[in-house]
Every structure is written in structure tokens, then in C-alpha cells.
Amino acid sequence: MACACSTLGLSSLGFCRDLCLFRRPGRSRSRSAAPLEVMRRFFCRCAPAAKGSEWRKNRKTPVWLMRQAGRYMQSYRTLCEKYTSFRERSENLDLVVEISLQPWKVFKPDGVILFSDILTPLSGMNIPFDIVKGKGPIIHNPLREAADVDQVRDFVPEESVPYVGEALRILRAEVNNEAAVLGFVGAPFTLASYVVEGGSSKHFSKIKNLAFSQPKVLHALLAKFADSMARYIGYQADSGAQAVQIFDSWATELSPVDFEEFSLPYLKQIVDQVRQSHPSLPLILYASGSGGLLERFRLTGVDVVSLDWTVDMAEGRRRLGPEVAVQGNVDPGVLFGSKEFITARIMDTVAKAGSHKHILNLGHGIVVGTPEENVAHFFEVAKGIRY
Ligand code: CP3
């Protein structure tokens, strides 16, 4: 089975056995140097000059945090005073770049995620929305019928969100290969839940009403999102994203049998479509409250499953099997604890994940009000880990 490591003559160092996330069973396509770079810089955090045994000795668990840019940071809150609308902050090129780099400048994480939102593509699909302080996402005309779905346009990223491509290109240059630049998209079911509910939801009753009374209408919407998000991932990769995370935050609101009908096939469609056009792009899948669905996540074919904190890391790793890398999964609430507690929980998570195929992260995004110094402590401890 060929992979980037063997193509580049690195197999003898044992890189493949431990680290290559890109060996997929049944795939014999040899890969270019690009994923190796991603693997070295992001998944292994090795010093660029280190070679052989030095390299192995130095390797650490890569670390970045979901929502590492945002309201817990004073620099972001200061910027919010001048630029009061979230749409502006997330759709103006200069602001997107500046905000994405805010945590990079302070904490030097191994991954720098684009500052944007899973809902950003919606206006380009003819679904007007806003994100309102204190209320969250608002969809002005929720979609409930076949005629509404017919109005949804295919997403053409180069036309609708050219600033995303430009921002990723600038981020790559700014970060200068010292960290991986990450893109992201929303998964079809999660996007559908917002546009059908009209915003955030507690019981998901409107989308369940659609799913369980007019499934064909929901399937038509999900298929549109799947195709558009696969294209959006490709666009992000072409613009410089070195890995892309798919957020299916609300998939776990579905029973397993309904996940198999309304989420899994569309996640698979995205993964398959992206593999055709961008075979070496690492894909990460996140869902909150995912314990009941882990084995099914593996069926999507993603490289990395991002675990929320309700799953024990050791159990999650075992249930996902050796082919899949894991990300996570410290409770974001731990960042409200003492520094000693934060350190202990990081060590516990890393020990349970084992010394390879693990990206340290939280089990969900950083919560508003989290002390910045505790985030700094998290990164400091994480980056000091040696094996
Ligand atoms: O991780 C990062 O640093 C990248 C930034 C990012 C944002 N949204 C910025 C944002 C990412 C990855 C997202 C994804 C996203 N957006 C998800 C999936 C992740 C998850 O949380 O499950 C979802 C479900 C959304 C939809 C959404 N956008 C919600 C529920 C909210 C929160 C509303 C609120 O007021 O708390 C948003 C707004 C949003 N997106 C904020 C940020 C930093 C907060 C608003 C602000 O900063 O003004």
C-alpha cells in the first residue's frame, strides 16, 4: 500500500506505521509531498529541520481549539465595538484575516482556522440569514416546502465568497508553514436544521416534522447542501486550506436509524466527492454528543473524528478503530478550572489517546467568558508534551 511517506523514501524511519493518516485501506494511489508536509507540520508538530530519531524524539501532539478566535478574547471584543455586525466581521477580507490571526499571534496553535461561520454560504444559495447578538442565527424565510427548496441555488464559492479564498491564501502566507491552515463547512443535516427551524432550536421539531412527514423534500435539500459543501471544501483546499473540518453539530439529535437516512449518506457523498477531486486532503468530522453514533461516523470515510467530551477518549479511540485519527476532547468547561486541573485533564486526555493519530482539542468550542490566561496555559502545557 503506497503512501506519501514511501514515495518520499521515509518509510524506513517508521513514519508510516505510527503517523501516516493518509493510508487508507484499499487505496494504492501514491500521494504527493503536500500531505506529508501537512502531516509533519500539523499532525506531528515536528521542528522543520529535525530528522530521523531527533524528529521522533521531538514529536508532540498537535493542538488547536475550536472557536479559538472569538468573544473570550479581549482583542476580538475590542474589534466588535468598531465592527458591530457578525456578518461584517466574518465577510470582510481584512477582518477575517485579522480575527483568524488573533489567536495565532498570542498562542501559536498548530492549526489556524479560518474565521467564518457554517452559515456563511447561505446567502450565496439564496437563503438570507443574519447572526444577531444574544439571539444567534436567524433565517429570515425558513424553508418548509418543496417550492422553498426549489429556490435554493447551487453554491459557487468563487462568485459568492471570493474573500474566503483570498483570506485562506493570505493566512497561508502569514502562517508561513509554522501551522496548518484549516477550513471548515457545515454538514448538510446541521445546515438544514438551521434553515428549516429558522435558527437555533431546542427540540428540532420543525425539521423532524419535515423528515418524518415529507422526507423527499428534506432529502432534496440535503442533496443540494451536500453537493455545494463538497464544492466549497474543494474551493477552500484550492485556496490553501490544508485540512477541512465538517461540523455536523446537530446530527446527534437524530436517532441512529434516522442518522443513517438523513445525515450519513450526505456526509459520505461529501467525502467521496472530495476524495475524487482532492484525494490527499485530510477531512475531520465533528458532532456534539456523539457517543451513540461513533461507529457510524467511521463509515463516512473521514480521516479524523473529533470527539466531544461526553465520550471517554480511550473508549472513543477503541470504538473508532486504528485507521481513524481522533481529535479532542477536553470539556470546554475545564478551562474555567484551576491551572493544575487543566494540566491534569490535558495529560489524562493525551494518555488515553496514545502517542499517535491524536490532535488535542476541546470537545466543543471555547465558551464565552473563558479566561484567556487559561487558554494560554492550555496551549503552553500542550506544546510542552514529549513522548
Ligand atoms: O473555530 C473557530 O475559531 C472558527 C470560527 C467559527 C465560528 N462559527 C465563528 C462564530 C466556527 C468554526 C463556527 C461554526 C459554527 N457556527 C457551528 C459549528 C460549531 C458548533 O458550535 O457546533 C455552528 C452550529 C454555527 C452557527 C452559529 N454561529 C451559532 C450557534 C452561533 C452562536 C451565536 C451566539 O451568539 O453565541 C454563531 C455565531 C458565531 N460564529 C460566533 C462566532 C465567534 C459568535 C458571535 C460573535 O462572535 O459575534
Automatic annotation (TrEMBL):
<comment type="pathway">
    <text>Porphyrin-containing compound metabolism; protoporphyrin-IX biosynthesis; coproporphyrinogen-III from 5-aminolevulinate: step 4/4.</text>
</comment>
<comment type="similarity">
    <text>Belongs to the uroporphyrinogen decarboxylase family.</text>
</comment>
<keyword id="KW-0456">Lyase</keyword>
<comment type="subunit">
    <text>Homodimer.</text>
</comment>
<feature type="domain" description="Uroporphyrinogen decarboxylase (URO-D)">
    <location>
        <begin position="182"/>
        <end position="198"/>
    </location>
</feature>
<dbReference type="InterPro" id="IPR000257">
    <property type="entry name" value="Uroporphyrinogen_deCOase"/>
</dbReference>
<dbReference type="GO" id="GO:0009507">
    <property type="term" value="C:chloroplast"/>
</dbReference>
<dbReference type="InterPro" id="IPR006361">
    <property type="entry name" value="Uroporphyrinogen_deCO2ase_HemE"/>
</dbReference>
<dbReference type="GO" id="GO:0006782">
    <property type="term" value="P:protoporphyrinogen IX biosynthetic process"/>
</dbReference>
<comment type="function">
    <text>Catalyzes the decarboxylation of four acetate groups of uroporphyrinogen-III to yield coproporphyrinogen-III.</text>
</comment>
<protein>
    <recommendedName>
        <fullName>Uroporphyrinogen decarboxylase</fullName>
        <ecNumber>4.1.1.37</ecNumber>
    </recommendedName>
</protein>
<dbReference type="InterPro" id="IPR038071">
    <property type="entry name" value="UROD/MetE-like_sf"/>
</dbReference>
<dbReference type="GO" id="GO:0004853">
    <property type="term" value="F:uroporphyrinogen decarboxylase activity"/>
</dbReference>
<dbReference type="GO" id="GO:0015995">
    <property type="term" value="P:chlorophyll biosynthetic process"/>
</dbReference>
<dbReference type="Pfam" id="PF01208">
    <property type="entry name" value="URO-D"/>
</dbReference>
<keyword id="KW-0149">Chlorophyll biosynthesis</keyword>
<feature type="domain" description="Uroporphyrinogen decarboxylase (URO-D)">
    <location>
        <begin position="62"/>
        <end position="71"/>
    </location>
</feature>
<keyword id="KW-0210">Decarboxylase</keyword>
<keyword id="KW-0627">Porphyrin biosynthesis</keyword>
